[in-house]
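Subject: Interface between my chains keeps coming out wrong

I've been trying for a while to get a sensible model of this assembly. When I model each chain on its own everything looks fine, but I need the whole thing in one frame so I can look at the contacts. Pasting all components below, labels as-is. Any help appreciated, I'm running out of ideas.
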Amino acid sequence: MNTLLNVRDLEVEFRTYAGVVRAVRQVSFDLNAGEVLAIVGESGCGKSVTAQSIMRLIPSPPGKITGGSILFNGEEILAKTETQMQKIRGNDISVIFQDSMTSLNPVLNVRTQITEILRLHKKMNQSQADARAIELLSMVGIPEPQTRLKSYPHELSGGMRQRVLIAMSLACDPKLLIADEPTTALDVTIQAQIIEVLKNIRQELNTAIILITHDLGVVAGLADRVMVMYAGNLVEQGTVDEVLCDPLHPYTWGLLRSLPRLNMGPEDKLKPIWGQPPDLLLELDRCPFLPRCEHAMAICAQDRPPAFNGKASHTVNCWLQHPMAPPTSRPQEVG
Amino acid sequence: MAISPELFKPLDKNRVQADEARPSITYWQDAWRRLKKNPLAITSLIFIALLTLTAIVGPFLSPYSYSDQDFDNIHLRPCREHPFGTDNLGRDILVRTMYGARISLAVGFVAAITTCVIGVLFGGISGLAGGKIDNLMMRFVDIMYSIPFLLWVIMLIVILDPEGSKGVNLSSIFIALGIVYWLPMARIVRAQILSLKEQEFILAATTIGAKKRKILLQHLIPNVMGSIIVTATISIPEAIFTESFLSFIGLGVSAPMASWGMLASDALTTLRSYPHVLVFPAVAICITLLAFNFIGDGLRDALDPKMRK
Amino acid sequence: MNNPIIEVTNLKKYFPLGGGFFSQAEMVRAVDDISFTMDPGKTLGLVGESGCGKTTVGRTVIGLYKPTAGKILFEGADVSTASKADKASSRRQMQMIFQDPYASLNPRMTVGDIVGEPLDIHHLAKGKKERRERIQYLLDLVGLNPDHVNRYPHEFSGGQRQRVGIARALAVEPKFIVCDEPISAVDVSIQAQIVNTLEQLQDELHLTFLFIAHDLSMVKYISHRVAVMYLGKIVEINLSSELYAHPVHPYTKALLSAVPIADPTLERKRKRILLEGDVPSPINPPPGCCFHTRCNRAIGVCKEVIPEMQDLGNGHLVACHNYH
Ligand SMILES: Nc1ncnc2c1ncn2[C@@H]1O[C@H](COP(=O)(O)OP(=O)(O)OP(=O)(O)O)[C@@H](O)[C@H]1O
Ligand SMILES: Nc1ncnc2c1ncn2[C@@H]1O[C@H](COP(=O)(O)OP(=O)(O)O)[C@@H](O)[C@H]1O
Ligand code: SF4
Ligand code: SF4
Ligand SMILES: [Mg+2]
Ligand SMILES: [Mg+2]
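Reply #2:
Try treating it as a single job with all components included. I did that and got this:
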């Protein structure tokens, strides 16, 4: 398998009134061609910032990528000029955001918005572009694409707009698609439709997808690999089966125990993670999860846990994985 | 650091400190902090404070009064006895400018206060009531708007002061400005209340049984306070300017009282030979208007919730 | 069996759409002829896609909206025809917890004042000391630090703010609380905190909840019975375990099959019933069964006749022509 994206020790900061927010801290991961990688975690843990860094879309000021490297196809993204980045964005890497209403231009119809990209990046003429646009719209499951081309964004429902966005992002056959909470604003029935569309895309086009979401159900249905983030840190990553069925980090346990399970009896209770995530203004030289962790040990308060590799594909940043740690099995409710 | 088995003992949970959130600051503290970072606004604020102080105590400290005439010393250029010089009746321009500041500032502040009281109540009630009442109240504002400001003020002054030939009573100027200047305030407050009204905390107040009056005074107005303050601050220079203009065209305060507009108007007749008589009141008007506008802008930035982080 | 605490019969709520000074407005049929009952001390879940009228039902039941037609009985008494004093007291017994933890607390008031406001309005605490004690008791009850009375809402996280909202609703000692998507806007780990708190309060204070949500798995967990809404109508009501195990209405089936499960092996095996298209507009709902535009089992009669609610026994009600 060839590695499409290689991120090492990424650091992103925002300078705000209250101080320096370290939004992403020492995050490293790889993504292979055609693979779906899900990033999960609580709100504010740095998922979107990580994804925006790959596109170099961090608003600056106040934001700044302060360290690390991002290799896309072996080339350093962080060393590229803004003009070079503009070629990459939309062409090699494209992105869909959560809010489909504001991502589309309200005064242009669907046809103009899609064909514009094709004519700009692919140098197609109008009739070629129209044909491709219809092809793209039917690929994302829009009925009667010919007539839909003339619609304006406000005439489409939320699910339709999200499809149009996906179609636009696929216009130039990107190698990587970043989907930042593509279904969060949608109803479950529409979410199911969009998940189907994304599944088809990766099967037919072999596009790699970075899927950001906080819904572990969506992850289970779509992802090959999962990274769990907490307070700007990567805490666990592995294949979807490893992370969801055999998780090793207490935070992942906590997430799974907070969800109602199908096989729950009437007496079974949810086990929330008490407390709340730390403020990212804090400089933490200990495990960020410590105050909420049931298994905390003395060493957790003294040093940040490094990444432990049980299996090559599964890394966990938790001191429980250290050979000297007391054996701790995951709670029985999980998995 | 050496890793020893000791380090893998469970941690005493009671000793683990929960992460504290960032220190607490209220909306006003936050706004003040932001305002402090705006040098233009702060300088202006200090200037206005000093001006107000001078306007209040200055005339008492001066050996002359605003109406003292000294025909031996007319049209003096600035000198030791008369730092700003004297006018065509030998009155000290410094004390008259300070006195003018009194009137101008009073006009500004009184206009701001009336603007607040009438505008906020009118806009608040209109926004809260909604529907037909809102529609009627806003059509009334539209009609008021369609008549030029100055026409209003001049008409009102003529009505309030029938013997206007001898100059105009200060209180009629106050009333005239007050009646006219609340209109933008009413519109702004209404628009904000209309959108706030749909917020869930207003519904929450309704479900716990709060009366409309309480909802308006305790929930809505405090949340519109930022805009109210900005609008009021911006209405001060407008009122000062209008008063100066009225005095300038002879509809202002009656002589020998002095306002900046009147000083400027008096100076005009002798402008060619004695330009310095015009300079001082004119500069005072300019700087003051500028300062109030800077403060208004600074407050707008400081109180804008979108700037909050 | 206890008498129901809430009985809603043939409730309708139409909103006029736009409409100027003189013109006759079109109507949004937000809630269109629904009936249900609620038992004291139990939770009724209300699920459906957004815009199907869940919030409107909740707000109409507690009297924030005036119903267009239909009856709402609270402990056997009609709320709309009650005297002014009775109305005020039943209003007090019915409270609401809101969806948005950021918009539902006045940002200019301290948490103490937010929770204290209902105490002041209804004169529930005599003197400063009793008021303070009561506020601290309430904060403690919902799991907040009672020393935080003087803090402002923006100093709290989403989950903590949601608890402040719960404490405010509890201040007037209500019997019935409408929870309008109280967990939609907070994180998974915090959702469980809030749901646990609500369950615990229900046990301690014998509260009745109308729990509105679009997260179906959480609704199943917290509710005793669940009602499924589509386009202003209730299409199926059943005990929650039954509804999830044996859904009968085609819409319920589709809705349940769309819920993703956090288990990759199950997810891979699952066959989805994908619904085509979107929910039609409630301004011109389709004639007959309002679901027929998306239903995979629709038959001729569905396009013309509105299906009646049928009782399949054990409180299982369903409105579909395919079940007799
Ligand atoms: N423009 C910005 N200025 C200041 N801080 C920012 C900015 N953008 C993001 N942050 C901070 O960076 C951190 C991570 O934000 P990010 O948007 O990546 O969160 P997320 O994991 O995507 O959360 P969500 O699930 O809510 O989308 C947060 O603490 C956020 O406050
Ligand atoms: N105050 C209102 N005025 C006009 N239409 C409304 C109002 N409240 C709700 N509606 C409409 O009624 C329908 C049902 O809304 P709602 O009860 O909020 O749905 P849900 O809570 O299920 O998402 C929607 O079409 C909505 O646009
Ligand atoms: S490193 Fe320690 S505190 Fe952190 S998750 Fe692991 S056991 Fe818990
Ligand atoms: S009545 Fe007909 S259209 Fe409606 S749900 Fe039943 S089968 Fe489908
Ligand atoms: Mg995000
Ligand atoms: Mg709703």
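Reply #3:
Confirming on my end. The domain at 1-91+208-335 of chain A is CATH 3.40.50.300 (Rossmann fold).
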